[in-house]
Amino acid sequence: MYQSTNIHLTSDIKLSDxxxxxxYLLLLLEHFGIEVPLQDRTLKQVCLQxxxxxxxxxxxxxxxxxxxxxxxxxxxxxxxxxxxxxxKNSHRYYADEIYPxxxxxxxxxxxxxDFKEMALVPRFFVDYFNDVTEHLEYENKTVxxxxxxxxxxxxNKEKDDPSIAYSVVEYQEHHNDxxxxxxxxxxxxIKYLPPKNxxxxxRKLLFLLSELEYxxxxxxxxxxxxxxxxxxxxxxxxxxxx
Length: 242
Hints:
It is built from 9 helices and no strands. By secondary structure, the protein is mostly helical. The chain folds into 2 domains: 1-74, SP0561-like, CATH 1.10.3910; 77-239, no CATH class. The longest helix has 41 residues, at 199-239.
């Protein structure tokens, strides 16, 4: 994984300098729908251009930079649709880009490495990503529609509906750190799988796995530290209206 210098980001820093220091922040830009080139615009200027709450952007960007950031003004219900859209974009990145890329490199490696241990690599990764896909589909089909419905009810000043059995508590119980199993696969590649003229391909595979792990880790933190607390607050607000 690329190691940044853990710089604490502020709104007046040039975003291009931030990206040069930590290229993984390009994933952040893509998930927000922000395009490069950036010229010499600051984080604040870019956020104003794209209509993004600067405190929300700084919270996410500092997570990518390995720094915990407390927003100067609390994130609110108005930030929730932006968060959900960001997470949905990251889902598309996992399913449409990084997963096919990793699987393609695994197949390349299998062509040159015929040791029996190699058969474990594609099998493990496919099983692992099936688990990831199940988790992402649960979020897309159950969690996010539920949250957007909560927002609609609050904006329309509707009372809490006791007939709706679902709660964010179920999401917390269902939620897990889907990036953890990647360590087993990386350990297999680094510690145990015998070499057979595959070092270049193996390096490419490890880099891709680290990229996936890096973004999944941020994804989980956004859900656990930012999204879930906002939803808990929304549920409590509606219960008070009974």
